[in-house]
Amino acid sequence: MGTARVCAEVSKSLTVSTSCTDTINGYHEFKISGYSLAKGVGIGKYVASETFMVGGYSWAIYFYPDGKSPEDNSAYVSLFIALASEGADVRALFELTLVDQSGNNKHKVHSHFGRALESGPYTLKYRGSMWGYKRFFRRTGLESSDYLKDNSLLVRCRVGVVKSHTEGPRSYNIPVPVSDLGQQLGNLLECGKGCDVTFKVGEETFPAHKLVLATRSPVFRAQLFGPLGDRNTQCINIEDMESPIFKVLLHFIYWDELPDMQELMGTDSKSGSTLVAQHLLAAADCYALERLKAICESKLCEGIAINTVATTLALAEQHHCFQLKAVCLKFVALPANLKAVMQTDGFDYLKKSCPTLLTELLEYVARLSEHSVVASGQQKEIFADGCDVNGRRVKQRLH
After folding, report:
1. Which pLDDT belongs to residue 399?
2. 187-303 fold
3. Which of 17, 269, 315, 363 has most Cβ atoms within 10 angstroms of its Cβ?
């Protein structure tokens, strides 16, 4: 009887925890075009992929057309995966695949995944640490293989960053509700309680709260509480904005999200949505609402079209939306689009309002024309500044 009691007490006091180790996996595909032009770049010289994120770290693929080691005398190509961000003792599994482009799926694969490793995962100790193969493939065999197609190679990379954590017992679980601050502020606007300023936009009026406006917009803060502002202001006239746009702007300030645009504007047409986004972007820039401005840029980028792109391009230039501007220039410069865009009213507006953009557009057209000539010869040109014809900078991190 005494023994049974002791065992029961031990059982009640026992707690359990578990150490869990797993990998966070990510993938990247790297196409190496113009392989024949890359040859002869020199032993130890490489072409690099864009960096990509896996497990909280940046990675990049490095391909050495003439090999990495002088002793191989350019007989092999070398292929490596490298840690491209700061890190100490990053443990990871790797897989490098040279894709068979004939469709026969006879890929060349070097992988840590799916097999036991005697010394465990590979460890990278600092930025620039690499895993891969100096003698990944003999060049003579590669150049007569199905891995090379249209003078291009295709490499797929898999990275599995090893992460560990300990799970202990959880006797209680108290759910935490999601934040509803936007809901509360939105209700404050809708009920109208405590409003101390009114905006007059055309024939409509919009009551609001000075403190909320000042918190969300530095422009409103300066206007309402700045040294040149009038704290006793109770009514403000808005003369350069239509009332539906101001209503959306005010909704965003309180809710931190856009309302149902179809219901608000009474249309679900693509051109109507683009027009609203254009006006709203200008309003967001006027009141320094950077998140709203970014949302408008994204929507305009998604809805880019022949009949609206010129107006959007002018707007991007006027309001310093550099990413949106680049997308519009690239779209307009395409031979399939250029002529049609030039026949729109928006292009006439572009010429009058932003004449300097025409020079940039001509540069894009010239660059695309040059690229098409080069591409027709199965070549890929790299300029002296380290960028290719698409403007992508070749990363030069390791030697």
Report:
1. 37
2. Potassium Channel Kv1.1; Chain A (3.30.710)
3. 315
